[in-house]
Design brief:
By secondary structure, the chain is of the alpha+beta class. It has a single domain (3-234), classed as DNA primase, PRIM domain (Alpha-Beta Complex). Helices cover 24% and strands 26% of the residues. The chain has five helices and 13 strands. The chain has helices at residues 3-14, 74-80, 125-139, 171-184, 227-234, and strands spanning 41-45, 51-54, 61-64, 66-70, 88-90, 93-94, 103-113, 146-149, 154-164, 200-202, 207-208, 213-214, 216-220. A five-stranded antiparallel sheet has the order 6-7-9-8-13, covered by helices on one side. Strands 4-1-5-10 form a four-stranded antiparallel sheet, with no helix packed on it. It has a two-stranded antiparallel sheet with strand order 2-3. Strand 11 (207-208) and strand 12 (213-214) form a beta hairpin. Helix 1 (3-14) packs across helix 3 and helix 4 (171-184) packs across helix 5. The radius of gyration is 18 Å and the shape is globular. It comes from Pseudomonas helleri. This is RepB-like DNA primase domain-containing protein.
Length: 237
């Protein structure tokens, strides 16, 4: 079967986003509300210091470059961040600080593609989707569940069917899979420094100040695999 034909048809079937989907709510695909102990937080970063807080010592309102949200309040938090310039969010879940020792759940593998450093810097979004899907098909690796245009480059995200704590899926395994994915997508500009579980990626629905363009979801496929199945698919590369 011609892979171009295969993926043109499959793209039409599997890339449909939910009705009335808004880019700013993309994190709700993988940051679900399941958190019995209510310890999991999503962390946000913006060098523009857009987040406000009350200084406990002075009782004055101040600005910060970081903030966090509990899972129960995430949708409300995201609503306030729509069309904000240069805001980033964690792909995984932590306690109050975004440090690896405070990691609670991993939710995905990802690749940050600086495609503007490659010969594909002028590729259209449609051609990018087709190239990634064909490449995955030819190399017998799982397709990403999400492809995101960052306003300059692209992100690929492989969502876990269930989020995993550090005992269910170790950080060592996470690192192995991330390195393998990075090697596989070097031809599209995979950033070798963007591999860690504590990474923040640009938030869909926000604006990239470098280009003035919106970060947006361009492809969605909800056929998810477990972290272990994804690990086995990538780790032998």
């Amino acid at each position: 079967m011609n892979s171009h034909i295969h993926y043109t048809a499959k793209f039409q079937k599997s890339s449909k986003l939910p009705h009335n989907f808004e880019n700013i709510f993309e994190p709700l695909f993988y940051h679900d509300k399941a958190d019995k102990k209510k310890r999991a937080y999503i962390h946000f970063f913006s060098k523009n210091k857009i987040f406000t807080y009350i200084d406990k010592k002075t009782n004055e309102e101040k600005k910060a470059s970081t903030s966090n949200s509990s899972l129960s309040k995430l949708k409300e938090t995201l609503t306030d961040l729509k069309d904000v310039v240069d805001v980033y969010a964690t792909v995984n879940q932590f306690t109050f600080t975004r440090k690896l020792e405070n990691l609670i759940y991993t939710t995905m593998f990802y690749s940050d593609l600086d495609i503007y450093h490659t010969g594909f810097k002028d590729i259209s979004k449609e051609d990018f989707i087709e190239k990634v899907l064909n490449y995955c098909f030819e190399n017998k690796i799982p397709e990403p569940n999400l492809m995101i245009y960052s306003g300059n480059g692209f992100y690929l995200k492989w969502l876990f069917s269930e989020k995993c704590n550090k005992y269910e899926f170790t950080l060592d395994k996470y690192k192995i899979a991330q390195k393998a994915i990075n090697q596989l997508f070097q031809f599209l500009g995979a950033d070798s420094k963007a591999l860690d579980a504590s990474r923040v990626l640009r938030l869909p629905g926000s604006i990239n100040s470098k280009t003035g363009k919106k970060c947006e979801v361009i492809y969605f496929n909800d056929e998810r695999k477990s972290a272990q199945d994804l690990f086995e698919a990538f780790s032998h590369f």
